[in-house]
């Protein structure tokens, strides 16, 4: 009995370490962080819209979200759960815009652009292309210098095609707030259930119109979403 107790006393600390490594909720989430600040690593919180102007990446899906959310297919499924889908007939309207997330990849074009689907994931984005609505571009922070896996979203509400899809007045703040409002709490799509919490972040993006596309002011607030698959 003494020998067994001594053996257990010796082994248990190592078993505890192994158990913690296996069960830790962040060990399989790449860098184990919400995101890395692009501005401190040579990047920017503005995507390049051309002519020296940018548009804010005003929503971040945390790298501590469920790993399946941070894949392309997973991000699209989550987007559909909150009222967005692929572009009309899979055709991209407008230019591709790059971002530098300070992860060592430099300026990289958007991974995908998703549009408000007006309740119909199959064809609702065609309506958005005509009458306008909310939309966002996704950029992935996955370079070797800062591999958080976080998704940076440039969200804005836009005018109809008759007004060349320009951003509506206050459209960066409006677009962000509408997306966040749709995301927080419980949502689901195609059998996948999500639970999303939100946190507002300041200090990464300067408020105002300086360098902002269309001269539209934005409040400098970035919302961090942590999305967990239930």
What topology emerges from the helices and strands here?
Layout: H1 2-23, E1 46-50, E2 53-56, E3 59-61, H2 72-81, E4 84-86, E5 98-100, E6 107-109, E7 112-116, H3 124-131, E8 133-140, E9 151-158, H4 171-183, E10 185-189, E11 192-201, E12 222-229
Parallel strand pairs: 3-12
Antiparallel strand pairs: 1-2, 3-9, 4-7, 5-6, 7-8, 8-9, 10-11, 11-12
Keywords: Signal
Signal peptide: 1-16
What does this structure look like?
The radius of gyration is 21 Å and the shape is globular. It contains 4 helices and 12 strands. Strand 10 (about 185-190) and strand 11 (about 190-200) form a beta hairpin. It is of the alpha+beta class. Strands 4-7-8-9-3-12-11-10 form an 8-stranded mixed β-sheet, with helices on both faces. The protein has a two-stranded antiparallel ribbon with strand order 1-2. About 25% of the residues lie in helices and about 30% in strands. The chain has one domain.
Low confidence ranges: 1-29
Provide the succession of SSEs: HEEEHEEEEHEEHEEE
Helix content: 10-25%
The span between the termini is 45 Å
Structural class of the secondary elements? Answer: alpha+beta
Shape: globular
- Rg, please? 21 Å
Number of helices: 4
């Amino acid at each position: 009995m003494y020998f067994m107790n001594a053996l257990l006393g010796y082994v248990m600390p190592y078993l505890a370490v192994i158990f913690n490594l296996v069960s830790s909720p962040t060990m399989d989430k790449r860098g184990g962080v919400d995101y890395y600040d692009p501005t401190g690593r040579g990047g920017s919180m503005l995507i390049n819209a051309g002519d020296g102007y940018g548009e804010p990446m005003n929503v971040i899906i945390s790298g501590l979200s469920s790993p399946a959310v941070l894949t392309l297919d997973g991000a699209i499924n989550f987007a559909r759960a909150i009222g967005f889908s692929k572009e009309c007939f899979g055709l991209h309207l407008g230019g591709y815009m790059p971002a530098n997330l300070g992860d060592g990849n430099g300026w990289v074009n958007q991974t995908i652009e998703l549009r408000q689907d007006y309740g119909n994931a199959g064809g609702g984005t065609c309506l958005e292309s005509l009458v306008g609505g909310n939309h966002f571009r996704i950029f992935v922070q996955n370079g070797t210098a800062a591999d958080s896996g976080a998704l940076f979203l440039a969200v804005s509400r836009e005018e109809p095609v008759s007004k060349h899809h320009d951003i509506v007045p206050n459209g960066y703040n409006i677009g962000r707030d509408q997306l966040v409002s749709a995301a927080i709490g419980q949502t689901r799509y195609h059998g996948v259930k999500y639970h999303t919490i939100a946190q507002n972040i300041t200090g990464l993006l300067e408020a105002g119109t300086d360098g902002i596309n269309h001269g539209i002011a934005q409040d400098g607030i970035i919302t961090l979403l942590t999305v967990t698959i239930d």
